[in-house]
TrEMBL record:
Name the record gives this protein: Glycerophosphoryl diester phosphodiesterase membrane domain-containing protein
This protein's UniProt keywords: Membrane, Transmembrane, Transmembrane helix
Lineage: superkingdom: Bacteria
TM region(s), chain numbering: 28-53, 59-77, 97-121, 127-148, 160-186
Annotated PANTHER family: MEMBRANE PROTEIN, MEMBRANE PROTEIN-RELATED
InterPro entries: DUF975
Amino acid sequence: MSKEKLDVLIAKGYDFDIKEAFEKAWQLFLAQPVLSISYTLLILSIQLLFVVYLKDFTLLYSILLAPPFFSGFYLAANKINQNQPVIYPDFFRGFMFFLPVVSIWLIGQILTFFGIVLLVIPGIYLMVAYSFAVLMAIFGGFDFWNALEASRKLITVRWWKFFLLTLILIVMNFLGLLLFGMGLLVTVPMTFYVTYVIFEDLTKDVFSE
């Protein structure tokens, strides 16, 4: 049923407000600022540990640990959005979806890489189009390939607007990096909260069950 509803949404078309998405994401952040910041600090610290002391295993971190770590923001955002109490372990629930999340990140990155190597533009297209793939797997129950395809088809409807959103998020994180990296403690969770907000607003009727 969800797939049929998604197809209807894609065929009908939609729009979204970037400013409104940032406002809602900021409210999600303010609902759990300490947990959001401390979890981000943990992720960045582990990443730095690999880069500095475990360079030979950095790729393994990027493939096996980073995807479920970052996916935790979506699950925490979902609980906040449903007015449910959130505790620190909720952010680690991305590991409950380890196989589909890792598969999506790995296959998505490979396809994007080849797209960039071959013609650049296809790679940029896929990088943006796969933005909802992890969310499709977690909240839609899709396997990794159907999640990638569902994300691509849905985002393609308003691809240029999502491309603009991606640029905004990149600039936001770059500015966060300039503040001695401390700004990332806010911009990183905000990046995932903004993505979640837009996904939730667009698919709340599709995945209501």
